[in-house]
């Protein structure tokens, strides 16, 4: 799946914490949950197959011994994992920054008030080790872009063509 990605940034100051709705809980990553991660991302349309998702997980996180500090899930009342986010890091514009990565909620759980708490939890996790952060989002995912902007994320121009995208979207800082 080819996506056109744009960047947003946040200074991680004044991150408000939002609680999950009743019946849901945050669960830290522990060994063995990579299958669940792959399932969530496959169902969310990030990958074409479970195998591709698992390969990506192992490529990005296979050697990370403290992944539980960076990756969180949402469990529903049946203890099924229905969302995930990784408070990660990356180098952008020659500087190491926090990176909100793999923010996904299963389609059947979307609309249940999980996105804002999951986003705020990921941002709070990033605050522990970073002064600012970035994320990438598909230019066509207007719902996520609106969510990120509502939580204080602002455009980060990495490529000159992104200026046109933000102007066309009507974003004004």
TrEMBL record:
InterPro entries: Acyl_CoA_acyltransferase, GNAT_dom. It comes from the Bacteria. Residues 27-173 form the N-acetyltransferase domain. Pfam families: Acetyltransf_1. One of its GO terms (molecular function) is acyltransferase activity, transferring groups other than amino-acyl groups. This is GNAT family N-acetyltransferase. It comes from Candidatus Salinicoccus stercoripullorum.
